[in-house]
Structure to design on (207 residues):
């Protein structure tokens, strides 16, 4: 999860990158997004498909989805600088894949340049499309240890066959915390908190 500054122009025919001042063509009127908007990584553009610029989005949203009602995805052009790409159409391909057509991406060669970029959603869209029971829904939750101390906010979730790895930032360092049957105590969805029981010394190297 990240909360960079992304500037939207209204009305406009381009998006102005706030740092590099590179302009990107856009085909619809936009709105000014809040500088405090947070973004959540949901997967990546795994491949192009067909001759008309369609892309395969591999996602971790927890269930198959056509992304109905979603206006835009975000790609990270540079660290903490996100560019919106508007969705022209989308259709379900499998449980964790959706084929999407982006405005302005009309040929295979252009689509290929966007692979294998990571895909992000704005916070409101993420909450709408992420399945409540999916591991990715833990993004943004605060991780708490068995002594009720805050470890850090979960910024990334990596699904593995028998466990989930959660990235938290501890004193400026990224730590990977394994979540499985033995380490997970409880999840408080109302207060967005995850309680864990971790082996002694696991976090020492990050402090």
């Amino acid at each position: 999860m990240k909360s960079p500054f992304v500037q939207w122009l209204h009305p406009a025919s381009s998006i102005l990158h706030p740092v590099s001042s590179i302009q990107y063509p856009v085909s619809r009127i936009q709105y000014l997004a809040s500088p405090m908007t947070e973004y959540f990584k949901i997967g990546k553009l795994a491949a192009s498909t067909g001759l008309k610029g369609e892309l395969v989005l591999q996602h971790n949203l927890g269930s198959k989805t056509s992304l109905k009602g979603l206006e835009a995805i975000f790609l990270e052009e540079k660290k903490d600088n996100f560019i919106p790409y508007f969705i022209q159409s989308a259709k379900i391909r499998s449980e964790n894949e959706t084929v999407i057509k982006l405005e302005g991406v009309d040929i295979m060669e252009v689509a290929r340049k966007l692979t294998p970029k990571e895909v992000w959603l704005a916070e409101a869209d993420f909450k709408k499309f992420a399945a409540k029971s999916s591991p990715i829904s833990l993004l943004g939750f605060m991780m708490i240890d068995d002594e009720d101390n805050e470890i850090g906010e979960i910024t990334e979730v990596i699904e593995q066959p028998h466990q989930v790895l959660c990235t938290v930032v501890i004193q400026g360092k990224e730590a990977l915390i394994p979540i499985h049957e033995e380490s997970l105590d409880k999840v408080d969805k109302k207060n967005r908190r995850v309680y864990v029981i971790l082996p002694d010394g696991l976090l020492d190297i990050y402090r």
Observations:
- The longest strand covers residues 81-94.
- The helical segments are 108-112, 123-129.
- The radius of gyration is 18 Å.
- Residues 3-33 have pLDDT under 50 and may be disordered.
